[in-house]
Specification:
mainly alpha; 71% helix
Length: 281
């Protein structure tokens, strides 16, 4: 009996699926490149990356992100500015969509979260939210570097991971989680000064849509419940109520914490659109 045919069919289907995925990805990047402008956020991030490569401080043009994040962006930064922006927009779309599908286990829930005002903003002027989302998908020792790409979005997930590490392995596992990120942070402080505190001024920024400190009365019980029940998604959701600063273009990240709750997620997206519409009247 010839058993090579089923294997060949599977191999062919896999190859065709990969080629189709690559083709769709290139098509999306091409469309973004031709139809969307280059946002100011990407120009600033790109410039900061080149400043760091030149041996200078990257903390120019209102950059507040950890220096190690900029190194990850080097492949996009060396591209022409508009092509790099298109690639970053695509990564925000693709990584977030994959995470929403994985956490929600529902294509329509993923599609619902992909049409929030925040995602449209990420397509027009991409930022680093996709790195935070990617960090959620990785093991904590690696993911902690990415969720802290934007501490206002990932800090409470990092806290959750620290407590989980203590529960599972005591001091030894906690040190394994914290030692690398601590050493890298201290090294970058030695190189560039006290950069982790540069972003404190954003709390008073006109871009800040956080409800802090009033929202703490919701956030604290939520993060405590998340820790007690060991639910990372709720720790992520608590960001909406505990972070003293975040922009409207970042709200889609903590909204992942609602998954896989369908009715609540739908209500939140509708509410987001209503609030966004009222805010621009």
């Amino acid at each position: 009996m010839d058993r090579s045919l089923p294997f060949s069919n599977r191999s062919t289907r896999t190859t065709l699926s990969i080629l189709l995925l690559v083709g769709i990805s290139i098509g999306i990047i091409f469309s973004i490149y031709h139809f969307l402008p280059v946002g100011q956020d990407w120009k600033g991030i790109r410039n900061a990356t080149f400043e760091m490569l030149a041996g200078r401080s990257p903390f120019v043009d209102n950059i507040y992100n950890p220096p190690w994040v900029l190194m990850l962006l080097l492949p996009a930064a060396i591209l022409p500015v508009k092509l790099g922006a298109a690639l970053l927009s695509f990564l925000n779309l693709a990584v977030y969509g994959f995470a929403a599908l994985r956490f929600g286990k529902s294509p329509w829930l993923a599609a619902l979260l992909l049409i929030t005002p925040a995602m449209f903003r990420q397509m027009i002027d991409p930022n680093l939210e996709f790195l935070v989302v990617l960090g959620l998908l990785l093991p904590p020792p690696l993911g902690i570097f990415l969720v802290l790409a934007k501490p206002q979005l990932g800090a409470f997930v990092a806290i959750f991971w620290v407590i989980e590490a203590w529960r599972e392995g005591g001091p030894r596992q906690t040190v394994r989680l914290l030692a690398p990120i601590t050493l890298v942070t201290l090294a970058t402080i030695a190189m560039y000064g006290w950069w982790p505190f540069h972003g404190l001024g954003l709390i008073g920024s006109f871009q800040n849509v956080s409800m802090w400190p009033t929202s703490i009365i919701i956030g604290i019980p939520l993060i405590v419940y998340a820790i007690q029940t060991r639910q990372m998604n709720l720790a992520l959701l608590s960001t909406l109520f505990l972070a003293p600063y975040y922009g409207v273009y970042s709200i889609h990240v903590p909204l992942l914490g609602l998954l896989p709750r369908r009715i609540i997620t739908l209500s939140a997206v509708i509410g987001f659109w209503i609030a966004f519409w009222i805010g621009f009247q």
